[in-house]
Amino acid sequence: MDQAAAYTKLIKAEAKRLGFLFCGISRADFLEEEAVQLEKWLREGRHGRMQYMENHFDKRLDPRLLVEGARSVISLGLNYYTPRSQEDPEAPRISRYAYGKDYHFVIKDKLKELLFFIQSAIGEVGGRAFVDSAPVMDKAWARRSGLGWTGKNTNLINKQTGSFFFLAELVIDLELEYDNPAADHCGTCTRCIDACPTEAISAPYEIDGSKCISYFTIELKDQLPEGFHGQFENWMFGCDTCQDVCPWNRFSKPHSEPAFDPHPDLLGMKKQEWEELTEETFREVFRGSAVKRTKFSGLKRNIGFLRPNNIS
Questions:
Q1: Which 3 state secondary structure label does DSSP give 219?
Q2: Is 132 one of the annotated active-site residues of the chain?
Q3: Is 212 annotated as a binding residue?
Q4: What is the distance, to the nearest Å, from the Cα of residue 23 to the centroid of all Cα atoms in its chain?
Q5: 23 appears as a binding residue in the annotation
């Protein structure tokens, strides 16, 4: 076994020990195909009010501009799937990924451990950890690293585990053994396209972010557009619809990360409790949660928008 292969085996074993669902590696290079797609997506305004998507265009496409001497992108997936759901079928709904502690913190800690391990076991290795915190195209690198394929809903799908997992990267200046991209297994299926409440999946493998419920309920800070009233299917934070209908998610298995377990009160809250939500309850139930991104005022706005007469 050559040195690159030995290092790769070592890193993947440690990633597994840290609880990552899978680990794949690709050569740090310019994302040529994605450059064309990103430019077109931005030009058509499909990022809505997410102006930050226009920033650092070159860095999004080339990790060597983020890490000096970068040679490898280590892509990692961390499972967050749970079969548990909110008990009141009429209660405003939250995406599964936000049930527990904010994944940014959970994954960043694991990435720091992995980088420390690499430096301790191999020697002087430079690198940076990324979890949505910098202009890195997670799904592109995960696809190149063999973690899965880009589905028609533009989420990354893995044949063995579906799509309920977070993505993160370590970009390091070490030559490793590289994985091959996974084949596409969507076939003729269009369930995600057919089920999307706001028709945000504008075509197979194309997402109009400016129409996505996740965009509206998390990213958009302004008033929600009246034209979409009645189309949110009771989602108040995020949306899992395109994942819930995906046939590959029948293979999803419950996560084993305690930090992703929901607050004891979260899943039992009834519709009326959500509509009468106080800032004190919001702070308690969502302490350390990704839901804090939308703030109390944002969540109240979203809940109000779900009412039939749209009275906040």
A1: helix
A2: yes
A3: yes
A4: 16
A5: no
